[in-house]
Every structure is written in C-alpha cells, then in structure tokens.
Write a structure and sequence with these properties.
With 254 residues, the protein is of the alpha/beta class. It is built from 9 helices and 8 strands. An 8-stranded parallel β-sheet has the order 1-2-3-4-5-6-7-8, with helices on both faces.
C-alpha cells in the first residue's frame, strides 16, 4: 500500500482529467492520497473532492498566501478542521525564497496556525524554503508542539537531524531522483526510514522519468524506488515502512 501524503489534485491543471488521474494512481498501487488545500479560495472545492473513498485533506494557509489572510479565514479554518476527512493543518510555514508575502506577516500567520493546530491536536504539514534557521528556532521554542512533517525537505543534513530530533518527519519528493540531487540522497541515506514520508506535491516536482511534465500520484513509485535503492532494501519493504509512517502520523489506518 502506497500513500501519497502531499498532493494538489484540486489544482486547475487537473480539471480536464482528474478522475483519470485518480484511476491511474490507484492502479499503480497508491491506496490513499492526502489533498493539500492551502489556498483559501480552493478550500471548498478541495473539501468536496475528498468526499471520495481513500482521499483525505489538510487545510491551511500557505506562506505565499499569508498577506491575503483575514480573521474570517482563521475562523473558517477552525471549522474545517472538524471535518471527518481533515487529518492535518497545512501546508503552512515560511518561504523566504520568493517572499510573496512579507516575512513578518508570514511569521504571524504561521504562528497563528501553529496555535490552531495545538488547540485541535492536528498534525502539521510545514512548508519551508530558504528559512530553515528561523523555522527551527520557532519550532524548538514552541511549547506543546503538535507532530508533523517538513514537506519536500530541502535543508541541509544538519538541519534534517535537528528537525527529526524535534519530532518531525521529512517529506521526500521527486527531486530525490534527479541526477544532481546528491544532498537529497544523502539526507535519505542518513535519516532512519521510520522518519521519512513519500510525497508527489503534484502537479509539481515530477521525478526524473517524467521531469518537465505535470506530476501525478501514479509517479510516486519512482520516488519510492529511489528510496529503496538508497536504503538498500526491497521496494516492498520501503513501501511498507513509509506507509506505516503515514498511517501513524496522520491517523488514516483502515
């Protein structure tokens, strides 16, 4: 059983063939998918989409969207987290690479959502780009921090170790298959597989075999194969362990 723990299937790039994409995913061995709804205007569309079997959802306000956030959005977020299919809050966090929202606003919106996650004991799905030093400082100083995953981890091996020690899992995506992704492969090699999750982040970050194309959940097998190769274990064992990690973190067992 494979669980894609991070997908954006309500993205308009899937509007023409969303059902076919789901069919290919399930035929490839993907059993469950967690839809990430991190733009307020897509929350309702995503919530309707995940009413299908084997789909779950994480609601949140992405750091790119932080400047748009209003109090009514946080109030709605709290309500959405009561939905049966809502297994996490995210993706939330800091993005100092693009700075689409002011950094001060990103921090405020992130902390507000950490408080909501703590209030409802919801798993965290955290986005971080070019902001790991600040992210680590915030997480290490936050009391009663909920469990979670650092989505598409792109920090250093040292930062990976700190975050795992803080209690977080690391999300591994298609770029681990890229020929020049030595750092990503080093992190997989040095991190216990019990601390890894597999993700697509579709429609983004397609693995090497499909690089440049729209990514989709069926392609996650490429990432899983690369992890098995790096860890020198069978594909089946890598599948079993990463699935168990996801079930444990998100509480989505049968």
């Amino acid at each position: 059983m494979i669980i894609d723990t991070h997908a954006h299937l309500t993205d308009p790039k899937f509007d023409a063939d969303r059902e076919e994409v789901l069919k290919r995913a399930f035929e490839s061995g993907v059993n469950k998918i967690i839809e990430i709804a991190c733009e307020t205007e897509l929350w309702d569309k995503a919530g309707e989409f995940v009413k299908k079997d084997n789909l779950f959802i994480s609601y949140g306000i992405h750091p790119h969207e932080a400047a748009k956030a209003r109090e009514k959005d946080f109030e709605k977020l709290e309500l959405l987290l009561h939905e049966k299919k809502a297994v996490a809050i995210g993706e939330i966090g800091l993005d100092y690479h693009y700075d689409f929202s002011p950094r001060k606003t990103q921090r405020e919106v992130f902390l507000k959502q950490l408080d909501i996650a703590k209030k409802y004991n919801k798993t965290l799905v955290i986005h971080c780009r070019s902001a790991y030093e600040e992210l680590i400082r915030i997480l290490k100083n936050y009391e009663g921090l909920p469990k979670g995953v650092i989505h598409c981890f792109s920090g250093t091996p040292e930062e990976a170790k700190i975050l795992v020690e803080t209690g977080f899992l690391l999300g591994i995506d298609g770029p681990v298959t890229f020929p020049k992704s030595d750092k990503a492969r080093q992190i997989v090699s040095e991190t216990d597989i019990s601390k890894l999750l597999i993700e697509t982040d579709c429609p983004y970050l397609a693995p090497q075999k499909y690089r440049g194309q729209r990514n989709e959940p069926a392609y996650i097998v490429e990432t899983l194969q690369k992890i098995a190769e790096i860890k020198n274990i069978s594909y089946e064992e890598a599948e079993k362990i990463t699935c168990e990690n996801a079930v444990r973190l998100f509480g989505i067992g049968d």
